[in-house]
Amino acid sequence: MPAARPGPRRATIREVLDIAIELEKKTMALYVGFAKLFPRPDEVRNFWFTMARHEAGHCGALALVESVLESDATAAKTRVWFEPKTATRLRSLLASYQREVREKPTLERAFEMTIDLEASELEDVVMDMMKVVKDAEWRRRGEQLLIHELGDLSYMIERYSPNERLLARADALVERRVGGLGRKRGARRRARV
Asked: Which long-range contacts (CB under 8 A, 24 or more apart) does 52-58 make?
């Protein structure tokens, strides 16, 4: 009889936060690698630096959560559902993509890797961590930044890649995030009524 595969488990917010920060830093490093790999045209290089800055912004938001946890021991011990396989999968994916960068992938492949990462559960984990910060404005800004980032990705794919399937994936990702933001706002409005 095969051993049962561990599934989601309860983890402290602190544990999940450490994993999220690690993965955001690795994603930022990947985008910096793309900026070096694609220095021309300037618009493409600037796009990759902007993506890296967005990841740095995520790290900053997570640092804010970290500060909140340091001042609130009870919040730091709060347990949330977490899927360890998600972290393992994302670490593997990022390691694989870092190896690919050394092999100099095409710009289209870099876009594809970016869609894979931006569609991953990591973005959801970051948004979930922002719930610790009891400031709705901070969370709203984070959600809007993510949507803006994805819109930029879609634009760059449309401009620099003839791959319609890749563009459709990017557009679907934007729509999913915009739709999710709309559902959250609607739920908040209903809760106030």
From this structure: 52/28, 54/145, 54/146, 54/149, 55/24, 55/25, 55/27, 55/28, 55/31, 56/28, 57/145, 58/24, 58/126, 58/142
Helix (H, G, I), strand (E, B) or coil at 82: strand
Tallying the residues shown for the chain, one arrives at 193
Kindly report the pTM of this predicted structure: 0.82
139-162 tens-digit pLDDT: 677 778 888 899 999 999 999 999
Residue 135 CB coordination number (10 Å): 11
Q: Which residues pair with 80 in a beta bridge?
A: 11
Is there a contact between 113 and 30 (Cβ–Cβ < 8 Å)? yes
Q: Coil, strand or helix: which one is 145? A: helix
61/91 Cα distance (integer angstroms)? 21
**How do residues 107-124 score in pLDDT, each as one tens digit?**
999 999 999 999 887 777
DSSP state of 6: P
**β-pair partners for 12:** 79
